[in-house]
From TrEMBL:
This is PPM-type phosphatase domain-containing protein. Residues 1-222 form the PPM-type phosphatase domain. Signal peptide: none annotated. InterPro entries: PPM-type-like_dom_sf (IPR036457), PPM-type_phosphatase-like_dom (IPR001932).
Protein backbone atom coordinates (compact mmCIF):
# COMPACT_ATOMS: atom_id res chain seq x y z
CA UNK A 1 0.00 0.00 0.00
CA UNK A 2 1.21 3.49 -0.85
CA UNK A 3 0.12 6.83 0.61
CA UNK A 4 0.99 10.35 -0.47
CA UNK A 5 -0.40 13.55 1.01
CA UNK A 6 0.22 17.28 0.68
CA UNK A 7 -1.17 20.11 2.77
CA UNK A 8 -3.20 22.72 0.92
CA UNK A 9 -3.03 26.49 1.16
CA UNK A 10 -5.81 27.09 3.73
CA UNK A 11 -4.42 25.70 6.97
CA UNK A 12 -3.49 22.47 8.78
CA UNK A 13 -4.24 19.35 6.78
CA UNK A 14 -7.52 17.61 7.58
CA UNK A 15 -6.98 14.58 5.31
CA UNK A 16 -6.18 11.25 6.93
CA UNK A 17 -5.42 7.80 5.56
CA UNK A 18 -4.74 4.47 7.21
CA UNK A 19 -4.97 0.72 6.73
CA UNK A 20 -5.63 -2.14 9.11
CA UNK A 21 -5.46 -5.90 8.63
CA UNK A 22 -7.50 -8.12 10.93
CA UNK A 23 -5.83 -11.31 12.09
CA UNK A 24 -9.30 -12.72 12.70
CA UNK A 25 -10.80 -12.20 9.26
CA UNK A 26 -7.63 -11.84 7.15
CA UNK A 27 -9.23 -8.77 5.57
CA UNK A 28 -7.50 -5.44 5.09
CA UNK A 29 -9.44 -2.18 5.29
CA UNK A 30 -8.06 1.00 3.77
CA UNK A 31 -9.71 4.26 4.83
CA UNK A 32 -9.34 7.72 3.34
CA UNK A 33 -10.98 10.65 5.17
CA UNK A 34 -11.25 14.26 4.02
CA UNK A 35 -12.28 16.57 6.84
CA UNK A 36 -14.42 19.58 5.98
CA UNK A 37 -12.54 22.75 6.74
CA UNK A 38 -9.35 23.19 8.75
CA UNK A 39 -10.48 24.02 12.26
CA UNK A 40 -8.65 22.26 15.14
CA UNK A 41 -11.53 19.85 15.84
CA UNK A 42 -11.59 18.25 12.39
CA UNK A 43 -7.80 18.27 12.09
CA UNK A 44 -7.66 16.30 15.36
CA UNK A 45 -10.59 14.01 14.48
CA UNK A 46 -9.65 13.05 10.92
CA UNK A 47 -6.99 10.45 11.88
CA UNK A 48 -9.38 9.00 14.48
CA UNK A 49 -12.10 8.68 11.86
CA UNK A 50 -9.80 6.88 9.44
CA UNK A 51 -8.51 4.54 12.15
CA UNK A 52 -12.03 3.68 13.33
CA UNK A 53 -13.30 3.04 9.81
CA UNK A 54 -10.36 0.78 8.99
CA UNK A 55 -10.32 -1.22 12.23
CA UNK A 56 -14.06 -1.85 12.30
CA UNK A 57 -14.25 -2.35 8.55
CA UNK A 58 -11.59 -5.06 8.53
CA UNK A 59 -13.56 -7.08 11.07
CA UNK A 60 -17.23 -6.27 10.40
CA UNK A 61 -17.25 -5.05 6.81
CA UNK A 62 -17.28 -1.76 4.96
CA UNK A 63 -20.70 -0.45 5.98
CA UNK A 64 -20.06 -1.06 9.68
CA UNK A 65 -16.67 0.60 9.42
CA UNK A 66 -17.95 3.72 7.70
CA UNK A 67 -20.92 4.19 10.02
CA UNK A 68 -18.82 3.55 13.12
CA UNK A 69 -16.51 6.37 12.10
CA UNK A 70 -19.55 8.58 11.58
CA UNK A 71 -20.56 8.02 15.19
CA UNK A 72 -17.50 9.99 16.29
CA UNK A 73 -18.91 13.11 14.67
CA UNK A 74 -21.40 15.14 16.64
CA UNK A 75 -24.13 17.60 15.63
CA UNK A 76 -23.43 20.47 15.48
CA UNK A 77 -19.73 20.03 14.93
CA UNK A 78 -17.11 19.07 12.38
CA UNK A 79 -17.87 16.73 9.51
CA UNK A 80 -15.98 14.82 6.86
CA UNK A 81 -16.28 12.69 3.75
CA UNK A 82 -14.68 9.29 3.39
CA UNK A 83 -14.14 6.25 1.20
CA UNK A 84 -13.37 2.82 2.62
CA UNK A 85 -12.06 -0.22 0.75
CA UNK A 86 -12.09 -3.64 2.40
CA UNK A 87 -9.96 -6.13 0.51
CA UNK A 88 -10.17 -9.90 0.82
CA UNK A 89 -7.34 -12.40 0.96
CA UNK A 90 -9.14 -14.48 -1.64
CA UNK A 91 -9.26 -11.59 -4.08
CA UNK A 92 -11.49 -8.62 -4.74
CA UNK A 93 -12.72 -5.87 -2.45
CA UNK A 94 -15.78 -3.95 -1.34
CA UNK A 95 -15.99 -0.15 -1.54
CA UNK A 96 -18.28 2.10 0.50
CA UNK A 97 -18.26 5.86 0.66
CA UNK A 98 -19.96 9.01 1.88
CA UNK A 99 -19.30 12.31 0.15
CA UNK A 100 -16.89 13.09 -2.66
CA UNK A 101 -13.74 11.12 -1.94
CA UNK A 102 -13.28 8.67 -4.80
CA UNK A 103 -12.17 5.13 -5.61
CA UNK A 104 -10.84 3.97 -8.98
CA UNK A 105 -9.90 0.51 -10.27
CA UNK A 106 -7.09 -0.07 -12.76
CA UNK A 107 -7.21 -3.50 -14.42
CA UNK A 108 -4.06 -3.00 -16.49
CA UNK A 109 -5.96 -1.61 -19.46
CA UNK A 110 -8.69 0.75 -18.31
CA UNK A 111 -9.16 3.13 -15.37
CA UNK A 112 -12.70 2.86 -13.99
CA UNK A 113 -14.24 5.35 -11.56
CA UNK A 114 -16.09 3.22 -9.01
CA UNK A 115 -17.77 5.93 -6.94
CA UNK A 116 -20.25 8.75 -7.58
CA UNK A 117 -19.70 12.05 -5.79
CA UNK A 118 -22.38 12.88 -3.23
CA UNK A 119 -22.54 16.58 -4.04
CA UNK A 120 -24.78 18.99 -5.88
CA UNK A 121 -22.39 19.36 -8.80
CA UNK A 122 -22.52 15.63 -9.52
CA UNK A 123 -26.31 15.58 -9.26
CA UNK A 124 -26.75 18.52 -11.64
CA UNK A 125 -24.13 17.15 -14.01
CA UNK A 126 -26.21 14.02 -14.40
CA UNK A 127 -29.27 16.18 -15.02
CA UNK A 128 -27.37 18.34 -17.49
CA UNK A 129 -26.61 15.35 -19.67
CA UNK A 130 -30.33 15.16 -20.32
CA UNK A 131 -31.23 18.87 -20.28
CA UNK A 132 -28.14 20.38 -21.90
CA UNK A 133 -24.92 21.87 -20.58
CA UNK A 134 -25.08 23.95 -17.41
CA UNK A 135 -22.18 25.35 -15.34
CA UNK A 136 -22.13 23.21 -12.22
CA UNK A 137 -18.48 22.89 -11.21
CA UNK A 138 -18.79 25.63 -8.59
CA UNK A 139 -21.33 23.50 -6.71
CA UNK A 140 -18.87 20.72 -5.90
CA UNK A 141 -18.51 21.97 -2.31
CA UNK A 142 -22.20 21.33 -1.56
CA UNK A 143 -21.97 17.80 -0.18
CA UNK A 144 -25.29 15.98 0.13
CA UNK A 145 -24.12 12.95 2.12
CA UNK A 146 -21.27 13.19 4.62
CA UNK A 147 -19.71 10.84 7.12
CA UNK A 148 -21.62 12.49 9.95
CA UNK A 149 -25.02 12.17 8.23
CA UNK A 150 -24.61 8.77 6.56
CA UNK A 151 -27.07 5.99 7.41
CA UNK A 152 -27.27 2.46 5.97
CA UNK A 153 -29.76 3.51 3.29
CA UNK A 154 -27.48 6.28 1.94
CA UNK A 155 -24.15 4.42 1.81
CA UNK A 156 -23.52 2.87 -1.62
CA UNK A 157 -21.63 -0.39 -2.06
CA UNK A 158 -19.46 -1.46 -4.99
CA UNK A 159 -17.79 -4.84 -5.43
CA UNK A 160 -14.37 -4.78 -7.08
CA UNK A 161 -12.90 -7.77 -8.94
CA UNK A 162 -9.57 -9.28 -7.98
CA UNK A 163 -6.37 -7.98 -9.52
CA UNK A 164 -5.12 -4.60 -10.62
CA UNK A 165 -4.90 -1.50 -8.46
CA UNK A 166 -7.32 0.33 -6.20
CA UNK A 167 -6.73 4.08 -6.15
CA UNK A 168 -8.40 6.29 -3.53
CA UNK A 169 -8.27 10.09 -3.77
CA UNK A 170 -9.57 13.13 -1.94
CA UNK A 171 -11.11 15.94 -3.97
CA UNK A 172 -7.86 17.87 -3.64
CA UNK A 173 -6.57 15.43 -6.27
CA UNK A 174 -9.46 14.67 -8.59
CA UNK A 175 -11.00 18.16 -8.57
CA UNK A 176 -7.67 19.73 -9.52
CA UNK A 177 -6.32 17.13 -11.95
CA UNK A 178 -8.13 16.42 -15.22
CA UNK A 179 -9.46 12.84 -15.64
CA UNK A 180 -7.24 12.28 -18.69
CA UNK A 181 -4.19 13.35 -16.68
CA UNK A 182 -5.10 11.00 -13.84
CA UNK A 183 -5.37 8.08 -16.25
CA UNK A 184 -2.07 9.02 -17.92
CA UNK A 185 -0.32 8.98 -14.55
CA UNK A 186 -1.86 5.60 -13.70
CA UNK A 187 -0.61 4.16 -16.98
CA UNK A 188 2.87 5.58 -16.41
CA UNK A 189 3.32 4.53 -12.78
CA UNK A 190 1.10 1.45 -12.43
CA UNK A 191 4.06 -0.80 -11.63
CA UNK A 192 5.15 1.45 -8.72
CA UNK A 193 2.28 2.27 -6.32
CA UNK A 194 4.27 4.77 -4.25
CA UNK A 195 5.46 6.63 -7.34
CA UNK A 196 1.86 6.73 -8.56
CA UNK A 197 0.53 8.10 -5.27
CA UNK A 198 3.27 10.75 -5.21
CA UNK A 199 2.60 11.72 -8.83
CA UNK A 200 -1.16 12.09 -8.31
CA UNK A 201 -0.67 14.42 -5.34
CA UNK A 202 2.05 16.42 -7.07
CA UNK A 203 -0.15 16.91 -10.14
CA UNK A 204 -2.77 18.89 -8.18
CA UNK A 205 -2.28 22.52 -9.20
CA UNK A 206 -3.63 25.69 -7.56
CA UNK A 207 -6.70 27.30 -9.11
CA UNK A 208 -6.69 30.81 -10.65
CA UNK A 209 -6.93 32.35 -7.18
CA UNK A 210 -3.92 30.40 -5.90
CA UNK A 211 -6.03 28.04 -3.77
CA UNK A 212 -4.98 24.42 -3.48
CA UNK A 213 -6.88 21.94 -1.34
CA UNK A 214 -5.37 19.23 0.83
CA UNK A 215 -4.52 16.35 -1.51
CA UNK A 216 -4.16 12.68 -0.56
CA UNK A 217 -3.92 9.52 -2.67
CA UNK A 218 -3.74 5.86 -1.67
CA UNK A 219 -2.76 3.05 -4.04
CA UNK A 220 -3.40 -0.58 -3.13
CA UNK A 221 -2.60 -3.72 -5.06
CA UNK A 222 -5.80 -5.76 -5.20
CA UNK A 223 -5.29 -9.45 -4.41
CA UNK A 224 -5.12 -11.56 -7.51
CA UNK A 225 -7.45 -14.19 -6.12
Amino acid sequence: MAIATREGTSGPIADAATAYTSTTTDRTAVALVDGMGHDPDIVRLAPMLAETAARVGAVRGGLAGLLSAGLLLHDPGPDAVAVLAVTHQGGGAEIVWAGDSRAYHWDGTELQLLTTDHNLAAYLSRAAREAGDVPVSALADFVGISLGTAVPATVPYVSVPAGGLLILTTDGVHDQVEPAAIEALVRKYAVDPQALADALVAAAEPDIDGYRDDATAMVIRAAAG
